[in-house]
Amino acid sequence: MTRDGARAVLDRVLAAAGGEEVEAILGGGRSALTRFANNEVTQNVAERRYLLSVRVVRGRRTGRATGNDLSAEGIARLVRRAADAASVQPEIAGLLPLPGPQEYRAVEASDPATADLGPEERLEQARRAVERCRAAGLEGAGIYESGEGTIGDYGEIGALAIANSRGLFAYHSGTSATFRVSALSGTAGGWAARESHRAADIDGAALADRAVEKTLRSRDPRAWEPGRHTVVLEPAALADLLLEMAWCSFGALLVQEGRSFLANRMGQRVMGENVTLRDDPYHELHLGSPFDSEGMPTRPVTIIERGVARSPVYDRQTAAKDGVESTGHGLPVPNTYGPMARHLVLEGDGESLEGLIAGVDRGLLVTRVWYTNLVDPGTVTVTGMTRDGLFAIERGRVTHAVRNFRFNQSVVELLGQVEALGRPELVNGVVCPPVRARGFRMSSVTEF
Amino acid sequence: MKDLASLAVDTASARGAEYADARLIVMQHEEVRFKNGEPAGLDQSESVGVGVRVLVRGAWGFAATDDLTREGISRCAALAVEIGRASARLVAEPVRLAPEPPHRAVWASECRVDPFTVPLARKVDLLARIDAELRRVGGVRNAESSLTFVREHQWFLSTEGSDVEQTLTRSGGGYTATAVRDGDIQRRSFPAAEGHHLCRGWEFIESLPWVENAGRVAEEAVALLSADQCPPGTYDIVLDGSQLALQIHESVGHPSELDRVLGMEANYAGTSFLTLDKRDALQFGSPIVNLVADATLPAGLATFAFDDEGVEAQRWPIVEGGRFRGYLTSRELAHRVGETRSRGCVRADGWHHIPMIRMVNLSLLPGRGTLEELLGDTGRGLYLETNRSWSIDQLRYNFQFKTEIAWEIRDGKRVRMLKNPTYQGITTQFWNSCDAICGESEWRPWGIVNCGKGQPGQVADMTHGAAPARFRNVKVGAGYES
User: Fold this and answer.
1) Quick check: A120 contacting B, CB < 8 Å?
2) Cα–Cα 20 to 30 A to A357, which of A267, A345, B44, B464?
3) Which positions ≥6 away from B423 have C-beta within 8 Å?
4) Span B292-319, average pLDDT
5) DSSP H or E stretch at residue A387
C-alpha cells in the first residue's frame, strides 16, 4: 500500500473517532514464497493481507481492537469496539498520553522489481538451484520468498503506517527477497542463504553451489567427544545465538525487572573488548523501519561498546522510568514484554573465513545451529544443535565432517572468548560476522 | 459467505485447475492480559479472508486475499492458477490425491457458554483476583496472567463437491509468578507453562481452580531462589502430564509427520528418523507405550469433523505396544505409505496459509495407578513438573528439556525442591526406558498452542493427553554443566 493509500485509511480512523484520543496502526502487504524439496516444487503460495489496529485512550484507560475490514463501516466498528474496551478496563497508572508529531529519517528500502516479482521469476531461481543439486547427485530443498510490506516469517504483521489524534503520522514500506537452499545426501546436509531488499541480489545457482560443496564434505562424519572446543561460527550460527540473547536481555523492561544479565551492570565490562553490539535499523544491510509501534523515531543504540554494557533499548514507558528519552523500540501499547531490539548489528573485523579457520589448531567449523532455546536467562545459556555442516579444523585446515552436537553455551561467556571476527553479513535478520571463539561447550553427540 | 468460496472454486476451475478448494474463514480472537496489578493488553481482533488451493498439471498453486469483492476473489483464484502453472515446470511426478468422498456437513465444537458473550469486565475481574493472590506472596517480582479465546468459522468447498461449514471455539488461559535474585530468575506457572487451552467455551475457564492455586504457585517460585541446584547425574525421572505432553509433541508427533519423513520440510525443521522402513519394524518404546492420533478426541484443540482438505476425522495408532505403527498423512502423500485414504491431518493457520500436514491430537494412553503410588514405587529419582525450555535435533533423535521445578524422590517420598533441572536423551532409548504410566484418574488433555512449522511459518494448536510416567536412567543436568 502506498503512503497516500495508508494515510487515507488512517484518516478514516481519525474521522470515525470523533474527538476521542485514538491511535491507529496499519500493517501488512503482499508476500509470496516458492518452496522446493526433493528437487521439485512442493508449495507455491502468495497472499495479500492487511490489518488495522485501533487503540482508544481515555485518561489512564485504554482498549484496542484489530480487524481487516477497511471499509468505512468496518473502521467505525473497530473504533467502537476499542472505545468499549477502554471503558471497562481498569486504569494503568503509568499509561502515557499519545505522542505528538515526530520527524523520521528516510529509509529507501523499496525495490519495485522485487515488489512485483512473479511466480515465473521465483520458479526460475529455484530451478537453477535444483539443477545444481541434481547435477551433484543431491536432493535440493529450499525457498524463495519475496514481498513488500510488513508480513513476517510467521505471518505476524508489523507497522506499515501509524497515525494518532495528536497529529502523528509515520509510514515506511520495504521489499524483501530471501533465498535459502539445503542440499541433502541421506543425513548429510549443507546450507546457504541470502537476504536482501532487492531480488536482483539473489542468485539461486551460486547459493546452491555453496550448499552442495558443504554437503559433499559432510558425508561420513566422525564422532568427536563432547566438551569445550574452539569454534569458528559462521554468521548463521552466531546470528541465532544473538537473537536469543536479544530476546532475554536488551529491552529496558527486562533490565528494570532484573531479568536481563545487563541489570545493574551498565558501565561494566561484560564481554570481550573486541565486541561492539548495536541495534541499528539504518545499517545498509538492514534498511529497517525508522519508527516503532508507538510512532516514535528509532535511534541507533550502542548496547555493548568494546565489551562494556552501555544501554538497553527503550520505549516511552521504560524511558520515563529511567529519566531518558525513548529510543523508538516500543511494541504496541500496552504489553507485558516492553521494548525490543530488532535490528542487531555485531561489528566485525576484516578477517576472512579462511583466516579465522587458519588460526585454529584443533576445533570445529559450525555452519549453522538449529532449535535454539533459552536454558538460563541470567547467564543467557542457550541450547541447540549444530546442523548442515559441522567440520573438524586441524592445524588450520578443514579436515573432515563431524557428527552433530547438542550444545549448552552461555552467549555472554562466548562473547567474552572471541579471538577474531570476520566481515559482517545479513543472515536471519541479524548483521553479524563469522567469529573464532574458545571454549564452546558441546554437551552430547546425536546419531548423525 | 459460501457464495464467495464457491466463486473462488469456480473461477479456478474455469482458469484451468484440475482440482481446486477454497476456505473462507472468519477468525475471531480475544486476549486479555494482566501484569503486576494492571491491565497489560487487551486485543480483540477479527480477520476475514479466503485461501484458494489448486492443482494445475499436477502441481500446487495457492493464493489468499482479504479483498472479498467478486473482483478480488476472481483475481486471487486466477493468481493461484498462475502459480500452479509455474510450479508445474518443476514437478517430477504429478500430485495424486487419495480419494475422499465429497462431504456436505455443518459441524461445531462443543461450546456451552460462548466466551465472546461473556462480559469483558468478568474476565478482567478473574485476572485481577489471580494477580492479587500471586502478589500477596513476598518476593514475587512479576505476576502475569492471561485469558485467550479463539473462534474459527470456516466454509470449505471443493471441485469434488465437498461443502463443509465448521465452527471451532477455543478457550484457555494461564499465569506465571517470577522471582528474581542476583541474576537467578525462577518461575512457576499454572496450569502449564503456556497455560491450558481446550476446544470448549467459557465453561472450561470456570472449571479450573485458578485462584486456589495462585498462592502455592507464587510460593514455589520464591522458594526456588533458595533451592539447591539440581545435581547432574543419571536418574529415574517421573514427568508430570504437562511436560510429558511436550515430550510427546516433539519426539513422537513431529517425527511421524509424513511430509517431514519424505523430505518436504528438509530446508526448515528438518526430516525424521522414522523413515518408511521403520513402520511395523521399529521398537519405538517399551511395550507399555501406546500412542494414539485422534482428531475425534473430545475438546481437543485439533478436533474437527473434517480436516482442511475435507477428509473426515479419524483415530489410529502411532505406537502400539511400543512398536511404531503409522504416520500422520495427507491426500497427497497417503499413497507413499501404501494407504488408500488420507488420515486427515491437513490443516492451515488461518485463511492466508496453505494447508499442510499438522499433528492432530496425539495422546499417550494411560496405564495404572496414581501419581503418589508411582512416586512411592520410585526409590531414588526426580519428579519434574512444568516445561521451561525445549530443543530437539533436525531428525528428532537428540532432545533436551528443562522444567520449572524438580522434586527429589527418596524412598518413595518427595524430600526436597531442586531448581534448574534439565534432562537429555535419544528419542527411542528414552521411550524404551518407560516402565510405568499412571492410570486414567491422572490422565489429562494438555493443549499446545505454539507449534510452528512450514515456510512461510504457520502456528497450530493440538492436544496431547498424558498421565505422569516414569523413565529409567535418564541423563540429567547437562544444561548447567561447566
Assistant:
1) yes
2) A345
3) B237, B384, B400, B401, B474, B475, B476, B477
4) 98
5) strand A381-394
The DSSP code for B250 is: I
ipTM for this model:
0.95
pLDDT at A153 over 90: no
Label residues B119-147 b or e (16+ Cβ within 10 Å = b). Answer: ebeebbebbbebbebbbebebbbbbbbbb
String of DSSP letters for A141-156: EEEEEEEEESB-TTS-
Structural contact between residues B22 and B5, judged by C-beta atoms closer than 8 angstroms: yes
In the numeric block, which cell numbers belong to residue A323?
529519566
Find, among B94, B96, B164, B56, the residue nearest to B339 by Cα: B96
| Residue B40 contacts A where some CB pair is shorter than 8 Å | yes
Instruction: Determine the Cα angle at A420 with ends A415 and A426, to 5°.
Output: 75
Q: Which three cell numbers stand for residue B92?
A: 517430477
Q: B87 in contact with A at a CB cutoff of 8 Å?
A: yes
Number of H helices, E strands in chain A: 10, 21
Asked if A383 reaches chain B (Cβ–Cβ under 8 Å), the answer is: yes
Q: What is the pTM of this model?
A: 0.96
DSSP tag of A225 = P
Which of B:97-156 have CB within 8 Å of A?
119-121, 124, 128, 141-142, 144
- Count other C-beta atoms under 10 Å from residue B188's C-beta: 27
C-alpha cell at A40: 521439485
Mean pLDDT of all residues in B56-68: 96
- Return the ∠ at Cα A154 (arms to A198 and A210), rounded to 5°: 50
Output phi, psi for A193, to 5 deg: -155, 160
Q: What are phi and psi of B120, to 5 degrees?
A: -55, -35
Rounded Cα–Cα distance for residues A280 and A290 (Å) = 10
Would the CB atoms of A41 and B87 count as touching at under 8 Å? yes
A88 touching chain B per CB within 8 A? yes
Among residues B431, B357, B211, B184, the alpha carbon closest in space to that of A258 is found at B184
Mutation target for B interface from A92, A375, A382, A417: give the one with most B CBs within 10 A.
Answer: A375
- Contact between B218 and B143 (Cβ < 8 Å): yes
Structure confidence by residue, pLDDT tens digits, A216-239: 999 999 999 999 999 999 999 999
CB contact under 8 A, B266 and A141: yes
Q: Determine, for residues A92 and B38 on separate chains, whether the beta-carbon distance falls below 8 Å.
A: yes
CB A254 within 8 A of CB A394: no
pLDDT in tens, B395-444: 999 999 999 999 999 999 999 999 999 999 999 999 999 999 999 999 99
Count Cβ neighbours within 10 Å for each residue of B262-293 and write b for 16 or more, e otherwise: bbbbbbbbbbbbbeeebbeebbbbbebbbbbb
Tell me which residue of B276, B250, B247 sits closest to B261, measured CA to CA. B276
- CB atoms under 10 Å from CB of B341, counted, come to 16
CA geometry: angle at B173 spanning B170 and B177, to 5°? Answer: 165
